[in-house]
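chain below, 479 aa
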Amino acid sequence: MRVLTTAVAMCAAAALSGCATTAATSSKPASGDSAKARPLPKGLDSGRGEDAYASTYRPLPSRPTALVDATIFTGAGEKIERGTVLIRDGKIEAVGAQIVPPAAYDVIDVAGKFVTPGLIDAHSHLGVYPSPAVPAHSDGNELTDPNTAGVWAEHSVWPQDPGFNLARAGGVTTLLVLPGSGNLIGGRSVTLRNIPARTVQDMKFPGAPYGLKMACGENPKRVYGSRNRAPSTRMGNVAGYRTAWINAADYARKWDDYRAKADRGEKAEPPKRDLQLETLAGVLKGEILVENHCYRADEMVQMIGIANEFGYKITAFHHALEAYKIADILAKEDICVATWANWWGSKLEAWDAVEANAPMIHAAGGCAIIKSDDPDVIQRLNQEAAEALSAGRAAGYQITEGEAMTWITLNPAKAIGVDNQTGSLEAGKRADVVVWDKNPFSIYAKAERVYLDGAIAYDRHDRRYQPTSDFELGQGAGR
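prediction:
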C-alpha cells in the first residue's frame, strides 16, 4: 500500500511540474534532421571507460593549523626535533624547526609527541574482502578465467567495511585496493582516500593512476590446475602472460590505426571494445601501473624478462619474500618491493624468507615498502616497519628511523603513483598527517589524531571524530 501511495504521489508531482506531458509524446518517427541516428553512447566507441567512474572525492573542511614542538619524521628520510608543521588550505605550508605560526592559526602544542605523514598501504583488500568475512562479501577474486584483466576492484569495494575506520585509527590515510591473486592477471586496482563515504567514487584518489594486479607462482597454477585447465605449471603461467600481451598489442594497434584515420578525416570504424584488452593496452601505453604478486627470486627475474619482451614496466613486486636475493637487480630496474617483516611459510614459495628483507632492499638502494594484505596488519603498519627495522639493525645494516619511515609513507606513495601529492611532509603536498602519542616505532605507540587534506578525520580522544560505518550502526555498534 505504501509503495502504491508513493507511486501515485510521484506521478502527481511530475504532472504538476510539467514532466508528465503525454500529449507531446509520440511513437511515430520524427522527420527532418531529428530523424538522424543518435551517436553511440561515449562508452561504446571511445575505447575508454574511466570517465564513467570518475572520482567524486571532496576534502573534508579544514582550518589553518600549526602543530608545534613535535618530533617530526618527514617521510622523506629526515627527522626534525622540536619542529612545527603548518597546514593551510588542505596543504602542507611549511615544515621545520624555526617556524613561528602566523596569527589566526589553530596552534596545537604537541610537545613530547611525534608527527608523521599519513601512512600509505600499497597492498590492501579492504572493501573487496570486507568484514564480516562471509561468502557474501568475498568479492576480491574473479576465479573464472586465468586472465580477468577486465574486472576493476572498485566495482566490488563496499564503503561500509568497518576496516576502513580501523585502518584510519592506525594512521592510514591512503590505500591501494587490489583484486586477489588467484589469476595470472587479476584486474585493475583502485587508490582510495580513507574517509567515511557513501560510494567508492567518493573515496577515489583524484588523478591516481590505475594499477594492474598480476600474480605468478603457486596461486594461479593451483587454482586452474585443480580444474584440469591451463595453467597448471609455471611454464603455463608464463605462456599465459605472453599470449595476453600479444593480444593486447594487437588490440592497441587497431585502436591506434582507427584514431589515426579519424584524425585524418578518413572513414573508419572503431574496433569493438574489449575490457580485458583495454586494460592491458593501457599498461603497454604506460597509463596503468603493474603491481605483481610474486614470492620467488627466480620468478621475479622471469617477470622482468616478460616486461622487457613486451615493453612495459613493473612498478612493484608484492610479497616478494626472496627479493633480498636479487636486491641489486631490483634496484637497477627501479622496481619497488612491497613486503612484510615476518609473514612466511604459508606455502613452499613463501618458505625462504628473512625478517630483514625490506632493510636489505633499502641497503641496496632499492625502494622498500611495508604493506598489509591483511585487515589487522593495516592497523599496525608502524609496528611491522619497526620489526623490519630491528631485524635490519640486528643484521648489521645502519638504517635510521627517518629512513625506515619511508617504507610506510613515501615509498608506497611512489609505488601507487601518488608521491607527487602525498607520502611526505613537504610544502605543497596534501596535508595527510598523523600525531602519535609515542615514537611510532614503539609497540606502545597509538595514533592520537589523523588529518586528511588538513581536516581532522580521526581523534582518539574525541568521539565526534571516531566514525562508525553504517553497517556497524545497523548492528548496534557504537551506541
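Residues 259 and 265 are 10 Å apart (CA to CA). Confidence is low (pLDDT under 50) at residues 1-38.
thats it, cya
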